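Notes continue from the previous slide.

Worked example: a multi-chain complex. Inputs as given:
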Amino acid sequence: MNVPILALDKISKRFGAIVVADRVDLALAEGESLGIIGPNGAGKTTLFGIMSGTVPPDSGRVLYAGRDITRMPPAQRCTMGIGRSFQIPLPFGGMSVFENLVVAAAFGAGQREHDAYERCMEILDQCGLADKANRSSRSLGLLDRKRLELARALATDPAVLLLDEVAGGLTEHECQALIELLRAVRRQGVSIIWIEHVVHALVASIDRLLVLHNGAFIAEGNPQAVIRSPQVAEIYMGIEADA
Amino acid sequence: MSVRVAFASRSSRVGMALCAVGIVALAAAPFWGGRDDLALLSEVYAYVALASLWNLLAGYAGLVSVGQQAYVGLGAYILFAFAILAGISPLWAIPLAGIIAAGVAIPVAMLVFRLRGHYFAIGTWIVAEVFRLLAAQISVLGGGSGISLPAGLIIAIAPSRQLRDFIEYWIALALVVVILALILLLLRSRYGLALKAIRDSELAATCNGVDVMRTKFLVYIVTAAGTAMVGALIFLQRLRTSPDAAFSVNDWTAFVIFIAVIGGLGRIEGPIIGTVIFFVLRQTLADLGTFYLLMLGVVAILVMLTAPKGIWGLVVDRLGWQVFPLERRVVLDERSAARAPMAATDGR
């Protein structure tokens, strides 16, 4: 079997008395698209923090293409190929939308600034922000900020893309456009882990679904089957109708 | 398709034109101003330079140092040491002060960078106090009571006092212009992108590949060099140095922070506006004694309450002006929003 592009090996993390990851194992195959769902506070975003390097795990290892990166700083992980979007958007508020992407392309993708311009506009175009390129990113509404998160993560030229709730608040039409965009991204060979509450968007674009609850995966497999599983129904009482 | 990117905007073109006119007018100050005017303007330049450097450090890199007086004093002592002990012209000692301070800043940074947040601030202050105490131990440079520049060295700069005043004034102006120009170039470069990203969100910067620690380290070294050169020049004009004056936390850090904060942190224009306000307050209220310091405090509190991003921050938010061309703007031509699928139903 091929070495997974990104893997967690018995990762544990607790904040005080709260266990947010309890010996979590995860393997993302190259080119795979993986979805993670789970109730609020299940530890989903913390897992992204551990993968991208902003949250140090208490124990366990993070592996990138078989290499131990548990102690590697976030910037280096990003240049290596792990791109991340934030659930609560963190735009560079004092910079224009375009400049936000130039930062990601210049540092995350390691491009020379001038060589990055074209690609940055292309990504802005794909994400529906081309006409706002010169706007101050602070002036964007929440939806556009989420688009910017996605666009900026794409501009780092990731091999693994970690998406943290990018579909929330989109209309049906916009959601379709997002699913199309992510399909195009996948065709370029990017592997994706996507945390999402908008389950139907998730199910439409992933190969495998994991359910995180109290810091552990309680269900895993074919998205449709997992959604209908009794464990998920139990955790998501009332919410699973959404699927 | 090719993407054209320009730095200048209309306000920055006007701004740069005004700057050019301003520099020419100020360079001619010896012909329209008296000796007092030159001294006051030199002091203004020194504060613009110090505050701009502190702004680079705190406003952009998030390094809130209250110990920059360490480098002002270091610069002053390097100049006096070279001049008195080695007989090197004080004018040559200014760039040397910058180089040596950069060298000293490297081990200091390795020490204070181990501290975070408030501890970093306190740590830098302690380093500056250590520098002050060390300076007081150098008996050949006057120990605790300080020393004056020998007359021979001063006369070597220029024979007449007037010409000397002119030369020192022009150096002060040149130094602030060069420091501002270098800051501008730095902010426009790749490092500038990193710095602005760090200013706006350290977490997002690091997750987008910016090596935050390396960038901060570099900025600390560069500001130390600049601060030391300004310090050397200040004390060349004063002709006398002492540990308490050269390493004064009040003169070289407290006032500088006041200037940068009321002007607007994280904006290159902020410290310039702040210095003007500071000197207007000082010149109009100086006769009131202690009351003047109370007024400074009141102004600082009012600005922080009503315009937390400083006066220039308020201008930027309201009017979007930029005096210095720093922002990359895409020159949009035939590009249309219709090509953006996700924007189609956005309704804005």
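Summary box: The longest strand of chain B covers residues 5-6. Residues 107 and 113 of chain B are 10 Å apart (CA to CA).
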